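hey m, so remember when u said the tokens were messed up on ur end? i reran from scratch. heres the input so u can diff it against urs
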Amino acid sequence: MNTNFLPNFENSPKKHILIGLTGSIACYKTCELIRMLVKANFDVKVVLSPSALEFIGCKTLETISNNPVYCDMFAPKQDTKHISLADWADLFVIAPISANTISKFASGIADNLITSIFNAYLGSKKPVIIAPAMNTGMLNNPFVQKNIKSLQNEGAKIVESETGLLACGYKGKGKMASVEKIYEKIIETISPAQVSTNLTQKKHIIITTGGTKEWIDPVRFISNASSGRMGLCLADFAYSLGHHVELISTIPKIDRPYDVTNVNTAQEMFEKVCKSFQEADLLIMAAAVSDYRVKNPSKNKISKEENSDTINIELVQNPDILKEMGKIKKKNQKTIGFSLGTQNIIETAKAKLTAKNADFMIANEAKTALNTDENEVWIIDKNENITHIEKSSKQNVAKAILEQVL
């Protein structure tokens, strides 16, 4: 999920968020979380445990937070920072939090600035979010689990660790949650009314993405150069607005909080769209669907030793998913297609818009769109009004597209 498009507070009074970092290699990830919070108009201050200083420097955090960074409880000419920072914060987020600091929090130990702030802050009953990061064995330690539970019982919200390859070389649960998930938890905690408003307006949106594969034999296929990034950005932004997102994708192993179905062929994508379309409000066909498939794919790997210098492969047309859905869509349903070309892209997109009975057609050029993180598009509606979205990141282009079609 791209949190550049999660709810922000540009027109609201600034909320104060205190970010705590403790001893973990995951400290570097927190820089991106701070950047996103500042961009969303939060006032962010940062406090570090002594161990966190082994992993990240104060100057970096000062630069991205636009505030001083605090780490020394007894620095000269400072007031009682553990009191003043606890009073200042509307929300205290500790990400990453180590097993050591979790245990200190749960035991009421106040031996450095971050633990002293927590002790002073907890009595205020203001919200706390923690994002653990540690070795799998440490996380599974019954005493650590008991301490996490103690913090939850006192009202702390936990953004659970994720599974993956850890810095220690182990593979298992213990990675700090993604900054997107932590950011979401912050938004839910500090402004539940805004999140609730988004959810009451939700729509069921189907988005397809990626290049389909048409099998020649069990190991070879015909495909295209689509990376699927554009569709993924559309799905992320739609989900961030609170919509029910159903992503039908050729990209394997997508870890997203919304519904994801993995397909390979155009026929598989067609069948899945058909099953879901009647209940959907919006279909966005961002996938690069193969126009043709092999008529008779081989059940066994084709061997060059068993064939002449050339072989002939007969192709037949795949179903045109957008066109078929355009034939059956209900009155309030919308269908949006993508038209990728190398020449005459606007005129080609206009022709497709009519032929497929779509509500919008998104025209883009192959040289700009394929295998890049940027795109430039022309959004064409049923009356052939054209909105040009200049070249920008695919996240920004996705935002512009959805703002118009919704």
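this time it looks ok to me. Residues 23 and 54 are 7 Å apart (CA to CA). if urs says something different then somethings off w ur setup not the seq
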